[in-house]
Amino acid sequence: MKRFLAILPALILFQGLPAFLAAQSKPAVIKIDTDRVVGEVDPHLFGNFTEHLGRCIYGGIFEEGSPLADQDGFRKDVLAAAQGLGVTILRWPGGNFASGYNWMDGIGPRDDRPARRDDAWGSLESNRFGTDEFLKYCERVGAEPYLCINAGLGTVDEARKWVEYCNEPGKTYLAELRRKNGRDKPWGVKYWGLGNEIDGPWQLGHKNAADYATFALEAAKAMRRADDSIRLIASGSSNFGADSDWVGWNRTVLDRLKSEIDYISLHTYIGNRDNNFEKFLAASRDIEDRIEVVEGQIKAARVGNPNARPIHIAFDEWNVWYRAMATGEFAIGRTGLEENYNFEDALAMGMFLNAFIRHADIVKMANLAQLVNVIAPIFANQQGIYLQTIYFPLAEYAKQRGHQSLDVLVRAPEYRPDSGRALSYLDVSSTYDPKTRRVFLNVLNRSEKQDIAAQIDGLRDVASSASVWELNHDDLKATHTFGKDQVVRPVSRTFQPAVQDGGFGYNFPKHSLTILTLQLN
Ligand code: AHR
Description:
It is built from 13 helices and 25 strands. The protein is an alpha/beta fold. An 8-stranded parallel β-barrel has the order 3-4-7-8-9-10-11-12, surrounded by 5 helices. Helix content is 27%, strand content 24%.
């Protein structure tokens, strides 16, 4: 406390009058130690997802004949925005769509491809965008492709042949077919999902855990025969309803597939259904509980075997999604899932990413669902695009890819938004880049009413100038639209930490997301 009082004048100087003083009896403490490394922030934490659903593919990333598209039909404005987002890995073709999709329908001359019913979302699939278009798109974005096989209504053999079509270097029938379709060199697709949400009763070809594991095991075996360098993601629990046995699903999948898979997937969508800001941003409790339960299940599956295959979590669908819905599966499809995001949703991006970074040793992939139009940070119509509020934190956090995640000690005022356990108002993660000796401190203040002053301790040799990136807005419900996407924008500035005994004070404004970049000398 004595030390805090000593830095108070500097705090007032750099942060303005601290409104917290009345409400907060003692400052929060954030203690950083660059030796306490959790793990690498895998670049694939900044992945994304494109599904044949609504206007994500057609009218989103791909619009043949549009003056805004290039010679391949890719929307140039969407592509540039995707690059600006820092997308590192892109999942396709679904989602639910994957469970009724036959990849053979989407190759060869476009005009010869069959139009099919899309029985996942109740629409018509022209198949004019298929495997080669998607893989070319990934090359343009600069993202690793991640294909999800049809483990619903599809077969093991279709999956095996898809790997061969994409990756075979020899002169097999399928490799020659790929060449005839314009791609000589193998695409080298490394990441393959063994189906999507097969635990969900809504899924085409939904299975129980044992039947899914039997299918996935055979698919994995056959796919690895086609290319033994691929990495496989098992369909983990997505169905977290009160009566769903999601723990049991994961246990069976891990027990049966542990020698074949590299990841198990998790999906989570959240929403502010009660219009309660602080409760909405308490979803990290649930997200982290699920991560930690599955982490324990992975450990249980591998314990006692020193040569056990490493298995990580791929959080391959996550976002805020609760408004663009209607009852019934097809009705949901017809809304096109076009969520209009607001400021509080943008803060939720920080909450999710902080949770992933804090668990960087086990969560090695995460894919925001989705890229454009459909529950997405980019929104397009035939005339152009705008960037949704959630775009900005995603793009900013992506700059921390490859850093070391640090185990930070946080002592801050707590709250209890429901009958569950109390949690800290400050939601914190931190990363360190040893190459540049910069520490990044990501702080979400999820108090609606209270600024929170914190003493940041533990860092020796902090340079006298640091930078601040801050996202804040008076109106929690502020949104963007065409021609008006400057409303919720981050501000960047420098500040001079008044360092004393290796610590300094900082005031985190109410309902804000702040990233401090601290240079170590
Ligand atoms: O991302 C939208 C849908 O949500 C996906 O198709 C499905 O996997 C999930 O239920």
